[in-house]
Write a structure and sequence with these properties.
alpha+beta, 753 residues, five-stranded antiparallel sheet
Length: 753
């Protein structure tokens, strides 16, 4: 009895308590417990950030398209500091119904020229009327004359001076009608229209994004989560750009990519976090457990994905032009903040909401029994069926899609690159209209001469050599006139005596020549002319500058640094995906497929924007026969980063399934099923934001928006839906293979579940 009683009353052994969460799971639990503190700190930071970052555009720089150490940049710097001369920044196209030689018109125009020359920040103002009426500054019909204005200072100072004086002189000035064009006027117009178009794109894409989010999530509360993270990322990035501008030059055009990329990535990342959270709730986990598991799985993938995108964007830091470097600054900042917002701020919001994440279910407006969209199912759906069909016949599917992408990419073989001039502006822009008058009514490019600087020569003692050199340059095909201290030279003509502005070619040491041609500066012929001038024998060391020279040097600099940028992207992709998967083949596959997809995108850009096709679809624009040289680089880095974004999300689920089952085919099918809908939704949201840029009247922004949207759509459909399953089916277990030394290395430093 006693023994039985002892047995009956014995306390059963206690079950071991569950192991406390570690790593990112522990972070998720901590954020859930400290949710109010996290949200209050975030709110306080935003309250400070909004006024500090709201005026970021007015503080950033407008230039940065030139390589600072290039020959043309050095020539322009010497002209600014030593001679106060060079190409005009503003060209005032001055028209009069009575003709430019009418005495009354001449008096008014001379007075306007004198007034401009006395303006603060104006180095020189010369016109048809102040230079003894040279024919080159008079239009063919005799109704238009030019006023050429050179400004002092760096790019920002020049822009501020132009912004002050242009509104005062354009429009009706007595009997004169004045239109401002030229390099600075065009860039000011680009900046103004860019800001207007960005605001228009945001107003257009905002409602569309909200509608798509509602369709994806089915609930107003869940759909608002990505928007909250996007606001956090964009505002925070503006603050970072404002701070960076205190130490380095930052281009104002970086703001454009900040808004689009910030909202797009915030949507991507928060979409995966919220979806995983709803899955975990559906499995019966508590709110805190669901948050911990979501941060451990989806949060880890988000952080890794953000790292790959940031590294892709960092490749633009190898270029010396701060215009391109600024896109790296803004892109890296917004990627990091979007990831932090999704992994830190979003879990705190989810902890506050709990099961109310599905509140305000919009589906109930159409069906009374509607429930939140299933977020996790073991039923095979469309994406599982597509992957299974592809993997039954991987070779035909892969060859068919690859053939389509290669065919789309073929036009890129004849791509020609140039720089943005007035032709990127809409036809309604005054700067564009003024430039068109220059093309149609003036034979010479007086507003965009080439500047040949001889910085080390003694102009006084070597005037004969300088004169001979000027005569020699005047015989080069395409050169119509060479102006120097010793006079003006043109082929087959006697030397003209020095004009009233000839002193501008004289310095304490050195001299320079203004070389006027009949060639469009941003053309193949214009670039060839620069190379011809640089190859001419000279009496001393020379530097050739001017718009065409800047383009030549920019292309050369980008050509030299591009292999380094591509190398950074390729190497970092291989290393990061190896750490993520432990595979040697998957990173190589990712690079090959991404390049195939991007080549197709670039080919389409040549067909549309270089050749001028499909205007009925993308909107009207001026066909220049070339692509802006900076835009494809930006497109490549951003699109490659976004492609890797989707790659990491897909691989995370495939890897999870493969480790669970060991079946490669099943892992690919279910991995695509788990992520196909999400990647498609994310791509649709990002493409919507980017396609809003297509409404821009500026050609580079239109090209960027359409190009990136096309890249995202192609990657999320043809690449992820067909090429990835086909490739992984053909590779089989080799997908997860690595040489033994690398496998051991991955065991030590690789990303673990």
């Amino acid at each position: 009895m006693g023994t039985q009683s002892t047995v009956r009353n014995a306390t059963p052994p206690k079950a071991a308590p569950p192991a406390p969460p570690k790593g990112l799971a522990a972070l998720g639990h901590w954020l859930a417990r400290r949710r109010l503190v996290v949200l209050l700190i975030t709110l306080a930071a935003l309250v400070v950030a909004v006024p500090f970052g709201s005026d970021v555009e007015s503080r950033l720089s407008e230039g940065g398209i030139t390589a600072p150490a290039s020959e043309s940049a050095r020539a322009d710097a010497i002209l600014n500091t030593r001679f106060g001369g060079g190409s005009p920044h503003l060209v005032l196209v001055t028209s009069a119904g009575a003709g430019v030689d009418d005495p009354g018109i001449a008096n008014e125009a001379t007075a306007l020229t004198d007034r401009l020359s006395r303006e603060r920040g104006v180095v020189q103002a010369a016109s048809y009327w102040s230079l003894d009426k040279p024919a080159t500054l008079r239009s063919k019909d005799g109704r238009t004359g030019l006023i050429l204005v050179r400004l002092s200072g760096d790019e920002d100072e020049i822009r501020k001076t132009a912004a002050r004086i242009v509104p005062e002189v354009v429009g009706e000035q007595g009997s004169l009608k004045v239109t401002a064009t030229g390099v600075t006027a065009v860039r000011m117009e680009i900046e103004r229209i860019s800001e207007e178009d960005l605001n228009k794109a945001e107003l257009l894409s905002g409602p569309l994004v909200l509608i798509i989010l509602l369709l994806v999530f089915g609930s107003v509360v869940a759909a608002s989560m990505p928007l909250a993270v996007g606001i956090f990322a964009v505002i925070g990035s503006f603050v970072i750009l404002r701070i960076l501008d205190m130490f380095v030059q930052v281009s104002v055009f970086a703001v454009n990519i900040t808004t689009a990329l910030g909202l797009g990535l915030a949507i991507d990342y928060s979409l995966f976090i919220v979806t995983r959270y709803r899955e975990e709730l559906a499995r019966g986990r508590t709110v805190h457990e669901a948050i911990g598991e979501s941060v451990r799985t989806a949060g880890r993938t988000v952080l890794f994905s953000a790292l790959t995108v940031a590294v892709s964007l960092s490749a633009m830091l190898v270029f010396p032009m701060y215009h391109l470097r600024s896109f790296a600054y803004s892109g890296i900042a917004v990627v990091i903040l979007a990831a932090l917002g999704s992994v830190v701020v979003l879990p705190a919001l989810l902890a506050v909401l709990g099961h109310r994440i599905d509140a305000l279910n919009v589906r109930r407006l159409f069906r009374r029994d509607a429930k939140p969209a299933a977020t996790h199912t073991d039923k095979a759906g469309f994406w599982h069926g597509l992957a299974t069909a592809v993997m039954r016949r991987p070779v035909p599917f892969a060859l068919a899609v690859a053939a389509v992408l290669v065919a789309l990419g073929l036009p890129f073989m004849r791509a020609t690159f140039g720089d943005s001039d007035d032709r990127v502006l809409p036809a309604s822009s005054p700067a564009y209209q003024g430039a068109q008058v220059l093309r149609e009514q003036f034979d010479n490019r007086e507003s965009s001469p080439l500047n040949v600087v001889l910085p080390d020569i003694d102009a006084a003692s070597a005037s004969g050599k300088v004169a001979d050199y000027a005569k020699q340059l005047s015989t080069v095909p395409g050169i119509t006139r060479v102006d120097a201290l010793t006079g003006s030279y043109s082929e087959g003509a006697q030397v003209a005596p020095p004009g009233p502005s000839s002193d501008r070619f004289k310095g304490d040491h050195g001299t320079w020549l203004s070389v006027v041609s009949d060639t469009e500066p941003y053309s193949e012929r214009g670039m060839d002319l620069v190379k011809t001038l640089r190859a001419q024998p000279a009496p001393d060391h020379v530097l050739v500058g001017g718009q065409a020279a800047l383009l030549v040097d920019s292309k050369d600099t980008i050509g030299e640094d591009l292999p380094w940028a591509l190398g950074i992207i390729a190497l970092s992709t291989i290393v990061l995906l190896f750490l993520f998967t432990g595979s040697l083949l998957i990173p190589v596959k990712a690079i090959v497929l991404n390049l195939l997809s991007l080549t197709a995108t670039f080919g389409a850009m040549v067909y549309i924007f270089q050749d001028g096709n499909l205007k009925w679809l993308v909107g009207d624009f001026s066909v220049t026969g070339m692509l802006d040289i900076d835009t494809p680089i930006l497109m490549f880095c951003v699109a490659f980063g976004l492609s890797m974004d989707y790659e990491v999300f897909l691989l995370s689920r495939i890897k999870e399934e493969y480790h669970r089952t060991g079946d490669n085919v099943s892992a690919v099918s279910w991995g695509l099923e788990r992520t196909g809908r999400l990647v498609t939704a994310a791509a649709a949201l990002v493409a919507t934001v980017l396609l809003a840029f297509a409404t821009s009247s500026l050609l580079p922004i239109k090209l960027l928006g359409i190009g990136l949207a096309l890249a995202v759509i192609v990657d999320a459909t043809l690449v992820r839906g067909v090429l990835v399953p086909a490739f992984m089916r053909l590779a089989g277990r080799a997908n997860w293979w690595a040489p033994r030394p690398l496998a051991r290395l991955h065991e030590k430093i690789g990303l673990k579940d």
